[in-house]
Design brief:
The protein is an alpha+beta fold and about 260 residues long. The protein contains seven helices and seven strands; from the N terminus they run E-E-H-H-H-E-H-H-E-E-H-E-E-H. Strands 3, 4, 5, 6 and 7 form a five-stranded antiparallel sheet that branches. Strands 1-2 form a two-stranded antiparallel sheet. It is flat, with a radius of gyration of 31 Å.
Length: about 260
């Protein structure tokens, strides 16, 4: 495919690269780009070999340090993976949340809402529009029945907190800005050429207050596992140090006092 001095790029080196190509033109572009990247790497190496001094080209210590760091990292990873308990109880998540609430203050509002997408020509649209903002149980039950049979999309986020950005993605582009003006018990009634989009907020948390535990559960779980990992690494350090002294693998030398 290409050659620079003794360095050769073979067709087999590019196997798998062209599987994502959608057309012969794409294939040509991908091939040319790969050759350019390969050529740049090798030409820069050629320049370095020509212009760096012997001392600057001596990388033995850097390679030795990198090898040592890589082997230590791989051993630590193997040690942790064979010992870490990845099961995190809900009580532990709750305790962590209660003890670190100040870490979970919202920098943007969260909300729970009903979201309805229904055809403008639907005969049920007037009825849906009349009750979609209601909090009365009988109205909610009727809304559920109407939307289940007539709405293109009906999502009742009763167990899920949403960011304003997440909710905006469900609206036509010209109406997405309306989401950022929502407040407690707010609503949106907008449309495009085919559908009506109805949103009713029934729970709202403003920025500056602690995020709900459920919203931060994944993050908390990761933090707890990270702490367990760090604890295991500290234990490993103690173990290897103790073993080193016990087996007299460590030798220290004191300067003779005069």
């Amino acid at each position: 495919m290409a050659q620079i001095g003794k360095e050769v790029l073979y067709k087999k080196d590019m196997e798998g690269l062209l599987t994502s190509a959608l057309s012969p033109t794409d294939s040509t572009h991908l091939t040319n780009h790969y050759i350019d990247v390969w050529a740049i790497d090798n030409l820069l190496l050629k320049k370095a070999e020509e212009e760096l001094t012997k001392e600057e080209k001596d990388v033995k210590q850097e390679l030795a340090d990198y090898r040592k760091s890589l082997l230590v990292f791989r051993y630590q990873k193997k040690y942790v993976e064979s010992r870490i308990d990845t099961l995190v109880a809900q009580e532990e998540i709750t305790d962590y949340y209660n003890n670190h609430r100040e870490q979970f203050l919202l920098d943007a509002p969260l909300l729970k809402a009903r979201y309805i997408k229904i055809r403008l020509q639907s005969p049920y649209l007037p009825m849906v529009r009349n009750i979609y903002r209601s909090y009365r149980l009988e109205d909610i039950q009727q809304l559920n029945r109407l939307c289940e049979s007539s709405a293109e999309v009906y999502t009742h986020y009763e167990d899920k907190w949403l960011t304003l950005r997440q909710l905006a993605q469900d609206l036509p582009s010209q109406a997405r800005g309306d989401v950022y003006a929502l407040r407690p018990k707010g609503h949106i009634d907008t449309r495009d050429s085919l559908y009506a989009y109805l949103i009713s907020v029934y729970d709202y948390l403003d920025e500056g207050v602690p995020a709900p535990e459920a919203f931060k559960e994944t993050e908390i779980r990761q933090n707890i596992l990270s702490r367990r990992k760090q604890h295991l690494l500290k234990e490993l350090e103690k173990e290897v140090l103790k073993e080193g002294w016990n087996k007299q693998l460590i030798k220290t030398y004191k300067k003779d006092e005069k």
